[in-house]
Amino acid sequence: PAVRRFLDFLGDKLRVDDPTPTGVPGFVREVARSATSILIQGESGVGTDVLAETLHTLSGRTGELARINCAALAEPLIESELFGYEKGAFTGAVTSKVGLLVSVQGGTVFLDEIGELSLGTQAKLLRAIESREILRLGSTKPILIDVRFVAATNRDLPQEVAAKRFRQDLYFRLDGITLVIPPLRERRDRIPALALRFFEAANKTAARLSPAVFEALHAHDWPGNVRELKAVVERGLLLARGGELGPQHLAFSPRVD
């Protein structure tokens, strides 16, 4: 009941400004230790992968974290990656393949860009989440799985459901808890710490960082979010050539509308 009231106050979505293990709210730590499926929403580049890793780290699960980018693989490959197949299941299947959902028993499966899955693959994924078992291509024997599902998308899934591009039942299964990472332009207080972290990680020449850089970074809109910030800082270090990195070295990418 206390958790329910807390979520009602937040409108069933919890804002996460800092997706790192030390930065997430206390309630996210509690959610991470549960078996509830989690849906992460946010624009491209905000750090959904970082939050997924944080959730796995805080979960206490003994298995590994497996990542699959649903937008980067062709449809047949997604199915074989998730569920696997038996030897001889199709032409070219000279050996059996252990699917991702079996290979990370006791771990976490992070489905990035879940909104890009076809309706057919969505149906098979729904069955796996509901029954906690999968059926490899070419097999008649189900395999039990013990994995935690974390999914991420930059799409509006309720809108996708209304347009019949995403299964409503799968959405409800994935949406145990929804965590939202706001765009960087709404988290400008995070820019200095992030910029300094990227600067220190990429600085191989003992270059210095001008305080004026932070003012220039703060004024930018960051359409590419944290990913863009990292690229700008690293590019700036190259342009500074070992000297002081100043605002003149910050080459921002043009915004594409």
What's the topology here?
Layout: H1 2-9, E1 13-15, H2 26-32, E2 38-41, H3 48-59, E3 65-69, H4 75-83, E4 84-85, E5 97-98, H5 100-103, E6 108-112, H6 119-131, E7 133-134, E8 143-144, E9 148-153, H7 157-162, H8 168-174, E10 177-180, H9 191-202, E11 208-209, H10 212-219, H11 225-240, E12 244-245
Parallel strand pairs: 1-10, 2-9, 2-10, 3-6, 6-9, 11-12
Antiparallel strand pairs: 4-5, 7-8
Folded structure, characterized:
With 257 residues, the chain is an alpha/beta fold. It contains eleven helices and twelve strands. It has helices at 2-9, 26-32, 48-59, 75-83, 100-103, 119-131, 157-162, 168-174, 191-202, 212-219, 225-240, and strands at residues 13-15, 38-41, 65-69, 84-85, 97-98, 108-112, 133-134, 143-144, 148-153, 177-180, 208-209, 244-245. The strands form four sheets. Strands 1-10-2-9-6-3 form a six-stranded parallel beta sheet, with helices on both faces. A two-stranded antiparallel ribbon has the order 4-5. Helix 2 crosses helix 3 and helix 9 (191-202) crosses helix 11 (225-240). The radius of gyration is 21 Å and the shape is elongated. It starts with a helix and ends in a 12-residue tail after the last strand. Residues 1-11 have low confidence and may be disordered.
